[in-house]
Amino acid sequence: MATRTPAPQARDKLAFLLSFVPYLMDIERVSVADAAAHFGVPAEQIRQSVRLIAVSGVPGETTSYQHEDLFDIDWTAFEEHDEIALTHQVAIDDSPRFSAREAAALIAGLQYLSALPGQNDRAVLDSLLLKLSRGASGVPSEVLVGRAVVDSSLDEIRAALTDGRRIEFVYLNSRGEREVRSVDPLRIESVDEDWYVRGWDHARRGVRTFRLDRLSELRTTDIPITKTPADVALPETLFEGSDEDLAVLIEVEADSVPLIAEYIAPDTQPVPHGSRVRVELRLAHYHGLKRLVASLPGVVQVLEPDEARDAVAEWSRQALERYGEASSVS
Amino acid sequence: MAERSASPRIAVEERLFSLVLALLATEQGLTKTEVLSTVQGYRQKFVVGGDNTSLERQFERDKDDIRELGIPLETIEAPESSGNNQLLRYLIPKGAYDLPADITFSSAEIAMLSLAATVWRQGSMSGESQRAILKLRSLGIESTEPVIGYAPRVRTRENAFDPLRTALDRHQVVTFVYVKPGGSAPRLRTVHPLALVQYRGRWHLSAYDEGVEDRRTFLLSRIVGVVKVKNRTFEAPTETGLAERALDELDALWQANVARVRVTPGSDAEARLGKRGTRVDAGTDANADAGGSTIELHYTDVDLLADELAGYGPEAEAVSPERLRAGVIARHRRTLEAHAPTEGGRHGN
């Protein structure tokens, strides 16, 4: 099954057709543009699907796909006004059930979110979980994410974000510097168990990402935010590279590349080297690098530049000193 | 072959769509021959009285694809024809296909489910939650404003995740090589996957291990190489709530394990570990005056905690248990050795 290539695309198109037909049945008449907006797909995909549906149907009593065995649409409206109206329908009456796996993916996502402010109404959640289970064609698979362990500051940040108020807090960066930051909160983000707030940093005049477990003395001000998410394009990736980033060449087990994927320099690919691979990382400074490498002992080895190797080695040497262990390598 | 090339090419999705429609419309089911000779996309290639082997294989693959979408494509055997698979009939029962009419969603619920779907950005979980959202949209309900201000994400970056999830659904026995930290040799495990759970950022597999004849929990990050699917299945467990139980067990383990860590005042380790753990009261902390405060941390796995503490370098010192302390020291030694100054050699570049 791993070698079949054409299927996923056709399968996705089939899933779309089976969802699109009941939508058209319910709505009776809709413009291509509105349908495209509703499903979040290009208008041309809507038109292609309509053309396919309009010539599809069942073999029927004659087993020869007679006119009454096929879907039909208001062709004039479609061709002249870019509007869709089904005038004849066959075989399908309702929306399809979720597959067991689809239901499981949503259930696990809901469980993860259930600890969030504004998402933690237990009765609402339980009713939704039940609907997903009942609406699935099989028993949803046993996949779950433990409820997120949410930092106590999240409630206040969420409230400030909703009210559009600037926040202030003391932030400890990975260099070990502590300073007061003044930020318009734009989005709360998470990666597994780590939570972040992304916002417009007034002193830096730019968007910055802050780990919630590194901020303290949070305070919501009365000052309205001056930047909204619409003003600044928030990228999908959590960390943005900058031209000042340092390039570091590392060697890593091929299986472990996903562990450092977010630091891999754009447009570069891991290059096999024996049983391991070499790849270039981009990081803002060696303080972040040494923490990353030290937390993956034996997995990641820094090759170049020497300053980066030295920073990592020095970090371990200092640690061993703390344990009263003389470092055997000097 | 001539008649095949002469027939117009039917797109795969048109053939699949036509097959679903035909199987939904039939009440008593269609035999394979009826499908191949009458359904759009097959009938153009069907040779009456000839060899249709490749078309039959096509039909088998199409059935798999349709079932992958969760569509209940069923096979029924006519009572008088047991064993003769030419007389098997295929159909999609409407009752099992249609979303029950009493299941409806409010605009607010659609918004919540849409947010839940965005949690997955990679692998099979992402594709499937997007398809679930597509089916929700077929209900024609407009979502309220999207839940603003959240961009949550759960990663499934371990290579073992998707194959294990598929095996879990299909009740397939799998084997993989599992490394236990601490020097023991990697071992091949043969298991029945029962649940996949992410606990405190780590994916775990709960499975019945044939070698020890008992249930075990595995960390996906310690599975080496490829998960191989055996050519046999296991009996589907009758109990439900296996994922809940796995999470509860991990939580009990987490509660039971306590480590003590001394952290440097004002450091990243103090800020972050201090938020997660409990500061030990100065009166009971024998090392309170040694220039640092002590934090108690719960954990599920001593080696994962050792990796994490190693990242803090000199800012954190594992005090107890002894295995944690020794583990962190060993990690620092390993990192130091791997980053000893090079002697002019440029690593073979």
Automatic annotation (TrEMBL), chain A:
Protein name from the UniProt record: Proteasome accessory factor C
GO cellular component: proteasome complex
Key words of the record: Proteasome
UniProt KW Cell cycle keyword: no
Highest taxon of source: Bacteria
Domain WCX: 247-320
InterPro entries: CBASS_pafABC_assoc_protein (IPR051534), PafC-like (IPR028349), PafC_HTH (IPR043839), WCX_dom (IPR057727), WYL_dom (IPR026881)
Organism: Okibacterium fritillariae
PROSITE patterns: WYL
Domain PafC HTH: 12-133
Species lineage: Bacteria, Bacillati, Actinomycetota, Actinomycetes, Micrococcales
Domain WYL: 154-219
Pfam families: HTH_PafC (PF19187), WCX (PF25583), WYL (PF13280)
Automatic annotation (TrEMBL), chain B:
Superkingdom field: Bacteria
Pfam families: WCX, WYL
Domain annotation WCX: ranges: 259-336
Tagged with keyword Cell inner membrane: no
GO CC annotations on file: proteasome complex
Domain WYL: 160-225
Keywords attached to this entry: Proteasome
PANTHER family, sorted: PROTEIN PAFB, PTHR34580
Name this polypeptide is given: Proteasome accessory factor B
Originating organism: Okibacterium fritillariae
